[in-house]
Amino acid sequence: MNVQTWTYIIVGITFALYIGIAIWSRAGSTKDFYVAGGGVSPLANGLATAADWMSAASFLGMAGIISFTGYDGSVYLMGWTGGYVLLALLLAPYLRKFGKFTVPDFIGDRYYSNLARTVAVICAVIVSFTYVAGQMRGVGLVFSRFLEVEVNAGVLIGMVIVLFYAVLGGMKGITYTQVAQYCVLIFAFMVPAIFISIQMTGNPIPQLGFGADLVGEEISLLDKLDGLSKDLGFSQYTNGSKPKIDVFFITAALMVGTAGLPHVIVRFFTVPKVKDARKSAGYALLFIAILYTTAPAVAVFARTNLIETVSEHPYKEMPDWFSKWEKTGLIEFEDKNEDGKIQYVADKETNELTVDRDIMVLANPEIANLPNWVIALVAAGGLAAALSTAAGLLLVISTSISHDLVKKQLRPNISDKGELVIARLSAVGAVCIAGYFGINPPDFVAATVALAFGLAAASFFPAIVLGIFSKRMNKQGAISGMLVGILLMLFYMTKFKFGWFGGGTENDYFLGISPEGFGTVAMLANFIVAILVSSFYKAPPQDIQELVEEIRIPSGAKDAVSH
Amino acid sequence: MAVSDKAKKYWKTNLRYLSILLAIWFLVSYGFGILLKEQLDTIKLGGFKLGFWFAQQGSIIVFVLLIFIYVYLMNRLDKKYGFNE
């Protein structure tokens, strides 16, 4: 059977599975819709968090970026895993003890202020939309290549599926579909990785093959790739080219951003007890680490394979996959010196090949000549990753509107049923806006996501950490900190990404820190402003200080409630 | 012990655990993977340069261990102070 038939079959089966789960786990109340009834086991929550977390960027984009940037790509590996340590140690157990539905809930109550709540809602919505845009683009990419439909039609199909289970099932539907999606995506990621690892190094464990010698050669894979990169004028794979300060700041921004992402935090509201929250953060990172320790191996395999297949080889002899990807415009070849061979080099003047980094994971099994069903499986995995994350984000957006705005501020007397209707309607609205971003995508997948992290790091993380670890922190401090953090981040991002406020180039970066790493600076600014401003105003009221003492003790966590 | 006394002691021990675990967290990623990378790269671990290995493999493995160690420590602490359920 050809790739396309296989893809229709495998993608069809997985979609049927997601829809089946959605029908089985319909939400009956707002509690079901917001926190899956609060009875999710730590293991299931760990699986769901891993799928929620690993987006199109992790699955499709990350190995590709590492493949092209080598050591510099480590920022994503450390950044997107190290945040879970912060989450497990500094946030998840306390927020679970606090026992409400959303992050703005915590901010609003802890800082006894609807203004703080509104600022948090705005931050949550900006962060989630920035992030969801990348997911929809991932869905479109997979559809256009494997099912040969228009990118836009692909986005629309993705929207309908997400709409179906997010609107019907809310958090409950999302949780159980995410468990299934984790299984699909990890299987889809590991199978080709194991195949290729055996092919290239004879070792079935990619994490070990990564550091092994090549089959039939006396040289380790990494040394070989370092040599190849150097010969072609690229910087050595294991060294990278970003300044150290930027690597440091980007890693920190991604870590802190991870811990501050509302769609990840809310997952910890769904387990029964405080100790379950800690444990499920551990499970989540374990499941994430399986993919994250494999991805850099895949990156090295793919890079070596690509160079060996194309470099100095005649264009006419290129395998099938080359022309297929050429059709999508994601691989481009221009024979500048008209020798009929492909010169793939670092020098822009003489380089003849451009490869979109987003396609590396999708193209990898084809480059390595794996069977068709494996290629189809990767397509299904990419869709699982994008859909699971999109659903989690859409839930945050709809909850922010129905719960944090309507219920908590505009119409406090609304019935549970009424709130549920509004939650569902806002989910529909959010899907439509996300679809718009998917059809008009900004930048490539991982970069948009990286910016969402900067925003999350700059806004939520300090407000939540201070709210737990400092009894003295008051609303004036927290609100001004969040505002300074997010405005600073937005300013820097729009200045260098969209050319607003006079624009600028890399030479104008503050201390050489790119917009991706600026979240760390904005986060520090948030902390400093919050602490300074809070010292000018009086300590929070007694009942708030008691609340802080209360959330520090794990026993007696009640079910998540709205009041 | 009064409840508030217990809570204070519990919190203090928790903060001590946090600072030790976070110090390790910082060391393996920002330390070994970024700041000291060049120095560690002179050491080879199989086919890996050690600094590069920490940046792309080792730090992640340590992160997972850190969380499970924290879970273990806190469960023990909860029991000691009777905050377990």
From TrEMBL, chain A:
CDD domains reported for this sequence: SLC5sbd_u4
Localization in the cell: Membrane
Q: Which organism is it from?
A: Spongiivirga citrea
Q: Which PROSITE patterns match?
A: NA_SOLUT_SYMP_2, NA_SOLUT_SYMP_3
- So what family is this one in? Belongs to the sodium:solute symporter (SSF) (TC 2.A.21) family.
Query: Which residue ranges run through the membrane?
Result: 6-25, 75-95, 115-133, 153-170, 182-200, 247-269, 281-302, 373-397, 418-439, 445-469, 481-498, 518-537
Q: Which domain of life is it from?
A: Bacteria
Gene Ontology cellular-component annotations: plasma membrane
- Gene3D superfamilies, per database record: Sodium/glucose cotransporter
**Which InterPro entries does the UniProt record give?**
Na/Glc_symporter_sf, Na/solute_symporter, Na/solute_symporter_CS, Na/solute_symporter_VC_2705, Sodium:Solute_Symporter
Instruction: Supply the name of the protein.
Output: Cation acetate symporter
Q: What is its main location?
A: membrane
A GO molecular function assigned to this protein is:
transmembrane transporter activity
From TrEMBL, chain B:
Nucleus listed as a keyword:
no
- This protein's UniProt keywords: Membrane, Transmembrane, Transmembrane helix
Identify the residues that the record assigns to the Sodium symporter small subunit domain, covering every copy. 7-83
Transmembrane annotation, as ranges: 15-33, 53-73
Q: Name one Pfam family in it.
A: DUF4212
Keyword Mitochondrion found: no
* InterPro entries associated with the record: Na_symporter_ssu
The molecule here is called DUF4212 domain-containing protein
